[in-house]
Design brief:
This protein has 118 residues and is mostly helical. Helix content is 75%, strand content 0%.
Length: 118
């Protein structure tokens, strides 16, 4: 009976740990925020070089589908659906409200850091 209780406690602890891991999966690191802001600035540079929003955003969505086959911890920035929507929304903003690449970088970095504290 004692072994069964220990097994149950261990099982509950493992489940709690796994659920906690998924709950914080959409919290970016500071490094991811900086890298993401570079990505968004590069999206603006791509826009300025003539890449259409359809081509850029379509490629992003294709990439999101492709990385779904990798475990969350091996992915860059897009660990879950919330991350996907966050990055995609920022990229859409680049095309729908054109501004200088550094401006888009700053806006993304600010939003990303705010997201870290949520």
């Amino acid at each position: 009976m004692i072994k069964a209780c220990h097994g149950l406690v261990a099982g509950v602890a493992i489940c709690a740990w796994l659920c906690a891991d998924f709950a914080v999966a959409s919290r970016p690191t500071m490094a991811e925020c900086f890298e993401g802001s570079d990505f968004i600035a590069n999206a603006a540079l791509s826009r300025d070089a003539g890449i259409s929003s359809e081509a850029f955003l379509g490629r992003m969505e294709d990439d999101f589908v492709a990385i779904q086959t990798f475990p969350s911890e091996l992915r860059w920035f897009v660990h879950d659906d919330d991350d996907e929507q966050f990055l995609l929304s920022a990229a859409r903003e680049v095309f729908s409200h054109p501004a200088a690449p550094d401006s888009h970088r700053r806006m993304f970095l600010q939003a990303c850091v705010e997201r870290m504290s949520d």
